[in-house]
Every structure is written in structure tokens, then in C-alpha cells.
Amino acid sequence: MTTRYAKIIMSLALAAFAFMVTFNNISDYASNFAFVSHVLSMDTTFPDNAAMYRAISTPALWHAAYWLIILGEGLTCVLLALGAGALWRARRADATRFARAKKGVIAGATLGFLVWFFGFMVVGGEWFLMWQSKIWNGQEAAFRFYMALLGVLIFVNQADNEPA
């Protein structure tokens, strides 16, 4: 049962993290919007780099991209919380039923991985060359986020024994 409780607690901790990120992005919209607008406009990348054709300078598209990020973070929170709830309800069930209850956590961790790895590393980091910015580079933070998600995803996916 200890392993099952650990999976539930870790899933709840990830849900709380995704909640706080979503809350912060909404409650401090301007600060975090500045990050998105600078990354997408590529205004702090190396001068005269050959990839500037990728830059987006339309504020409406910055807002759309930012709301897509917030939506992904919020859905990550909801899926992880619902998944943790399903694990809680199945904590005393047989191993097969507990394994079926992992779907929400798996979906939430996968979506979170897509937000922070694909969104911040692939799109932000490589397409918009965020790595070139000394000020607006969120790759280290994104790495911490998606590695935590990946670690819990691997742990939750481990097979479970029958409850004691």
C-alpha cells in the first residue's frame, strides 16, 4: 500500500504544481505574457541571426499562444487531479483495477510533458531560438518541470502488487 500511496501523493503534488503555474499565469498575466511575447518576437536572440523569419510580431498571436499554454497547463492540472482521485478510490482494489485507474495521471503527465518539453524546448527553445536569449530563456525551468513529470509518469506506470 505504501507504493500506491506514494503514487497518489506524487500525482497530487504534480497537480498542485500545474495548478500553481496556471494560477500564476492568469493572476500575473502581464509578467508571463512578456515572456511569451519576447520569445515569439525573438527580439533578444543573437543579432542578425538567419532564423528571424520565424519571429511572430503580432500581439494577437502572442495572446493566442499564451492562452494555449495556459490551457495546456490547466488541463494538465485537471487530468492529474482527476487521476489522483481515481487512484485514491482504487487504492484498495486489485492490481488490475488500480492499473486502470492510472489513466488520468498518465494523460495528465503526458500532456504536461508536451507543454513543457514540446512547447518550451522544441517550439520555444529551438524554433524561436529561446536558448539564445540571456533574459527570456525558460529552458532550465522547463527541464525541471518535464523531468519531474516524466519521473512520476515512469513511477506510476510501474506494476503494482495486490493490496496488503
From TrEMBL:
Keywords: Membrane, Transmembrane, Transmembrane helix. The chain crosses the membrane at residues 65-88, 109-129, 141-159. This is DUF2165 domain-containing protein. It comes from Pseudomonas vanderleydeniana.
